[in-house]
Amino acid sequence: xxSKNRSVTLKxxxxxxxxxxxxxSLVMNGKPGVGAETRERVLQIAEALEYRPNLVARSLVxxxxxxxxxxxSSTRNPMFPxxxxxVDQALKARGYTLSIIPTGDDEKLEARELGALxxxxxxxxITSSTLINNRELHKLVESGFPVMSVLRRDYxxxxxxxxxxxxxxxxxxxxxxxxRLGHQQIGIIKGPQETSTGIERLKGALWAxxxxxxxxxxxxxxxxxxxxxxxxxxxxxxxxxPPRESPSAIYACNDDMAVGAFDALWDLNIKVxxxxxxxxxxxxxxxxxxxxxxxxxSLNKIEMGRQAADHLxxxxxxxxxxxQPFAVMLKPELVIRKTCGFSQMGRYLLxxxxxxxxxxxx
Amino acid sequence: xxSKNRSVTLKxxxxxxxxxxxxxSLVMNGKPGVGAETRERVLQIAEALEYRPNLVARSLVxxxxxxxxxxxSSTRNPMFPxxxxxVDQALKARGYTLSIIPTGDDEKLEARELGALxxxxxxxxITSSTLINNRELHKLVESGFPVMSVLRRDYxxxxxxxxxxxxxxxxxxxxxxxxRLGHQQIGIIKGPQETSTGIERLKGALWAxxxxxxxxxxxxxxxxxxxxxxxxxxxxxxxxxPPRESPSAIYACNDDMAVGAFDALWDLNIKVxxxxxxxxxxxxxxxxxxxxxxxxxSLNKIEMGRQAADHLxxxxxxxxxxxQPFAVMLKPELVIRKTCGFSQMGRYLLxxxxxxxxxxxx
DNA sequence: AATATCAGCTTAAACGTTTAAGTAGAATTG
DNA sequence: CAATTCTACTTAAACGTTTAAGCTGATATT
Lengths: 362, 362
Prior knowledge:
Chain A is of the alpha/beta class. Chain A has helices at 10-17, 21-28, 36-49, 55-62, 80-93, 107-116, 135-142, 167-180, 196-211, 228-238, 255-267, 301-317, 344-360; strands at 67-72, 97-102, 124-127, 147-151, 161-165, 186-189, 221-222, 249-252, 277-282, 295-298, 327-330, 333-335.
């Protein structure tokens, strides 16, 4: 069918319409300075030829590509899908398109990708994989490139805009929940301390413990890396403690580790929540499954992505204006499911009764 | 710090090096025709100025942007993360960057986005959300734009390259597994019949039933849309059938629906696998959880993404050559977990024991 | 020694837009 | 009616590359 594959250009339209390319450009961009009839004619011809402006050429001249990069740790990070959905919603609404750049939380790669953003033609970047004290990010921000940090942030980067969750509050309410249910020996599986989320979610929990006069015992606080395996290992370890030192509840600083913990408890034949309570963080999709039902701290990831993207575009599009800092801190909410007891009480009693039955009627 | 934000260009380098821009271009691209000393000098100056070629300008002249689009239904589709990981691996290795375009499986939007790909400057597209008989896709392929279909395909689109899973075989082995475990009344939760996956996974299962002489009963075959809620609804419905018509096993054409089914069985207090066996499809992350452990059909999503991306780039980069069709069909494997019995045996023994009990202690 | 070949450069056009500056003619003004 | 302002255009430069074609002087060929 198609012989020559060159697409229709501004010039093609201008020739057919007997006007200069400049005029066509004015028409296509709805700018004034063109007579009504001419405008109409050009529009019709453009329509007929199915003319579409070449965005690459346009980018070159006005230095805007309408391309936004999203730096993430991995597409498999369970936060990513919803975050990206929010970002995509906002971008689509304003005519931008989204590129994703997974970095695997590899510092080198992240630095390289950050440095490459500008000359690759991106208009701005949303980064969700920021580690604390990221020099390259620093440089990028200082150079005036539009950057929005989401989920995590870098305290050391003064001019970095962000929209994050209040991790301290989140950690606080998670821990408070466990304490109020009567737990005194509480295990904590930390996140990496090079991330703001890792730091804050721990800090909040420790605050709650302090407020309620509960001793935080060192052997119950374990390092984790936000991946499920580290949660599994941490629990396997904790549970080796002598019974009176072992936890009756565990707070994992994210859901992945909570799921790992859940699996470990399962393997150890420890009943959740009857024997050990568990609370996670992020309200990731898995936690909502009926057979998992992990109590967790929820945050609106879609909203977070949307706000970040929307404001990033604001920044990009308001050229001259003094750029004032943008910092949003969303509020966490506790989602109470089944891993912390209470609702399980009924079931627990039921089983006790069954056991009695068996003894009485063997 | 930074006053003027214009980045370093080829010209800046050429001026400092006292050569023409053309020479710098040759050097930067490692092309011949430049003397050793000159080359060295240019390289050093470029290095010193931190010169990076402007990819937008480059794209404009050689018509290649090194941008690949990936059309997906949603970032929340559980297949997406791994698929994208594979794609990203291949793209990164060859210097391309990935844009994702969620379409929500909305036909209009998908058509629009497909049509826009070329003038947005993409070099090619990987589509995983293709519905059957997609006119716009047809047009795009016929126009010679590099397209690779992954996961799903469109039978009606003759020149569409693809890398997919053998869905028929997958459906077959899933169903065969249930049959071999002794099930005769098997419920099926279908996928949408406008997708190749929906069609094939059903067809394969029906073949297996036919091969083993098992009647497929209409009320046990329910429509689904690949989302969890439809699996839930299907099971709720099926289980309302009179006991002798209700299924002892269920085959869901994807894991999302299997999870929905799992939840429904949970709510109905029907034990899996003791009372009803369940098999899913895709080997999605959730199914591997210890407390879920759904038996499912596995496919290597990362590999699938990688192959698709890799070959797409091959197509893009071999300009002239006759483009011959590329079609890969990966082999499915059954991942046996805990939702299909084997405990069937346990149940059998248990019932025998109960009967004995009743006789002895009436 | 005249000619061909070649390495090592430069020139200039091209890619498809946008936009500042220019122009011709019509309309408005004093 | 001459001067001014507008309107509706056009011209041409610019964005930052690539690349075909051209040029120059040196080396190789006959």
